[in-house]
Specification:
- This protein has 27 helices and 20 strands.
- It is of the alpha+beta class and 590 residues long.
- Among the domains are: 120 residues, no CATH class; 100 residues, no CATH class.
- Strands 9-8-7-6-10-11 form a 6-stranded antiparallel beta sheet, with helices on both faces. It has a 5-stranded antiparallel beta sheet with strand order 1-20-17-18-19, covered by helices on one side.
- α1 crosses α23 and α3 crosses α22.
- The radius of gyration is 27 Å and the shape is elongated.
Length: 590
């Protein structure tokens, strides 16, 4: 086939020669090229990409190799929840949470808004994305979210290119200085978890939902009472209400942010777009389970967990304790303080063991005036659970706590909010239109080869399955134009790293690095991955050099000639040859 002719309205599309796969659908080049870069901004604008990355990780041999690890031996004998716990520890051991905003370089708000203007207006992006001015609600204003995430060191114009990683890119962090394991940011970890839950733990895709907010990404798994992934960790329903600092951090997104997108094997629903492709029955199943996960009746244990979460309310309470035949009392905040570093808790059956660890001089011989004795609340809660949504039940509880400070309206509202959270999910009311398409169909018992074949068969009818192969970076199964477009336009870390170097010096540096791709077979790394991990196949190194030259001169004449064992880059008439083991055959004018 001859050179591809640039279609109207597709400026920046590389002209691909020897095309072996159909060109991406007209008007879809920006979306398909975003599948190779997967930035936070791109996933927000193109929500199909979130699940496409899950499928790319399911296709990856890396995740399937985990099944042979001794850590997962006899996994089939465990309950689904125990399997998930085993996976959590594996993720904890092999990956760090990475939020180094400089990893993937810098871009500008103006540049990105110009990219996305055909798909979403600037005001909508600014309301919903941290890189474009989003600060969250009052909570995030109070904690200064830009400073918290390190965004304050950038101006409002220059912003980090906040990128999501495939499992291969996550594993390759071990090649970077300062890392001993793999790493990834929240979207990378959530999509990796979703893929591994299916591949390793055998959790059906039907039971896995991904949720994205402007500042976070996590999964909700329908197993038992529900399991929430949070970066590397897991949160169960019991943990959600334990009042600890770790749980408080895990709650930030759902407590304080709008959920912008929910993705599932049946499709997605987005807070901005009126059409949703997610099956409404699946969404109702997920929202019902999530609402149940996020509410609990108030018991004495839950009240004491609330006090752990709200230490300013502890001053209303004291605890009675018998020691050597004497009745003693101690301020509640003192006991909570001793929880730190102890395996025992105020709120469960280990309380007496915790009290026994505390020196006697911390206790009072007489009750402390004005404080409720926690032990005296036990009869009230015996056989009774307080529904946080029932005003009469809550009123009876507050009457049982004769402390004017605790009965203040704000304290009651805090306690009810602790026990019952209504997350801000995308609404189902009009103008929402559910237009479900074909669902991703993969059985939990499928092999990797079977998964590849099944997704190949679904590509023509399901855009997410098609996008998965672009996120998977397989140039033997995709149109090259989207991959090359993203390589030439979105690797700012290469241009920055090569500052001050002549083209010959950049070439020499690339040749010094190992001729090893982080991707197997015909799959290819983007230039920024080559630069960050200091390695790459000759094809990838040639593209890295081309990316830097394009960033320096938008009019540079660049041609790529690819053979199974070598690649030639022609830049302004000068040719450089590179060895390659990608087995590809083709070419492009970049």
């Amino acid at each position: 086939m001859g050179p591809f002719r640039t279609a109207p309205g597709s400026a920046g599309r590389p002209a691909v020669m020897n095309r072996k796969h159909p060109a991406v659908p007209e008007g879809q080049l920006e979306k398909y090229s975003s599948a190779s870069t997967l930035s936070d901004m791109e996933i927000f604008v193109f929500p199909e990409l979130l699940y496409a990355l899950v499928l790319a990780n399911i296709l990856s041999p890396k995740v399937w190799e985990w099944r042979a690890d001794p850590w997962f031996a006899n996994l089939d004998r465990l309950s689904p929840y125990r399997r998930i716990l085993r996976l959590k520890q594996f993720v904890m051991d092999h990956y760090e949470f990475n939020l180094d905003l400089d990893t993937w370089g810098l871009t500008t708000q103006q540049r990105e808004i110009a990219r996305f203007r055909p798909f979403m207006d600037e005001a909508t992006i600014s309301r919903s994305n941290a890189l474009f001015g989003y600060e969250g609600d009052r909570y995030y204003f109070d904690m200064d979210i830009r400073r918290h995430f390190g965004l304050d060191k950038y101006g409002r114009e220059v912003i980090p290119y906040w990128k999501t990683e495939t499992v291969e890119a996550m594993d390759a962090f071990r090649f970077k200085d300062g890392y001993r394991t793999g790493a990834g940011e929240c979207v990378s970890l959530s999509t990796l978890y979703a893929a591994a839950l299916f591949v390793v733990c055998g959790i059906p895709l039907d039971d896995i939902f991904l949720m994205g907010t402007p500042l976070h990404s996590q999964n909700f798994i329908l197993a038992g009472d529900g399991v929430l992934t949070n970066n590397r960790r897991l949160v169960t329903k019991a943990m959600w209400f334990n009042g600890t600092e770790l749980t408080r951090k895990a709650q930030r997104a759902l407590r304080h942010e709008q959920v912008t997108v929910v993705a599932h094997r049946t499709g997605w629903i987005h807070c901005v777009y009126p059409d949703a492709t997610l099956d409404p029955a699946a969404y109702a199943r997920m929202t019902g389970a999530l609402h149940g996960f996020l509410r609990t009746d108030i018991t004495l244990e839950i009240l004491l967990n609330f006090l752990r979460d709200a230490p300013h309310r502890q001053e209303c309470f004291q605890i009675r304790h018998e020691r050597h035949g004497r009745i003693l009392h101690i301020a509640a905040e003192k006991v909570y303080h001793y929880e730190h570093g102890s395996p025992y808790k105020v709120s469960d059956a280990t309380r007496e063991k915790l009290l026994a660890e505390i020196d006697e001089d911390e206790f009072f011989a007489a009750p402390i005036d004005g404080r409720v004795v926690i032990n005296d609340l036990e009869p009230f809660f015996r056989g009774r659970r307080v529904d946080p949504s029932d005003e009469d039940s809550v009123r009876r509880l507050t009457e049982a706590v004769p402390c004017h400070r605790f009965q203040a309206r704000q304290a009651i509202e805090e306690m009810v909010a602790f026990a019952s959270l209504r997350p801000r999910l995308p609404e189902t009311d009009a103008p929402r239109r559910f237009v479900p398409g074909p669902a991703i169909d993969l059985d939990p018992g499928v092999t990797r080869e079977g998964a590849i074949a099944a997704l190949e068969a679904q590509r023509a009818a399901n855009p997410v399955a098609d996008l998965a192969f672009y996120a998977y970076r397989d140039l033997s199964r995709t149109d090259w134009a989207p991959f090359l477009k993203s390589a030439m336009e979105r690797s700012p870390v290469c241009a920055k790293g090569a500052e001050g170097l002549e083209a010959g010096a950049i070439e020499a540096r690339l040749r010094e690095w190992p001729d090893e791709s982080i991707y197997d077979g015909a799959r290819c790394a983007q230039p920024d991955e080559v630069w960050n991990y200091r390695r790459g196949d000759g094809l990838e190194k040639a593209l890295c050099l081309a990316s830097v030259l394009r960033a320096r001169n938008a009019q540079a004449a660049l041609e790529l000639h690819v053979l199974p064992d070598r690649v030639t880059l022609v830049a302004d008439g000068r040719a450089t040859a590179w060895p390659s083991r990608k087995g590809l055959d083709g070419g492009a004018t970049l």
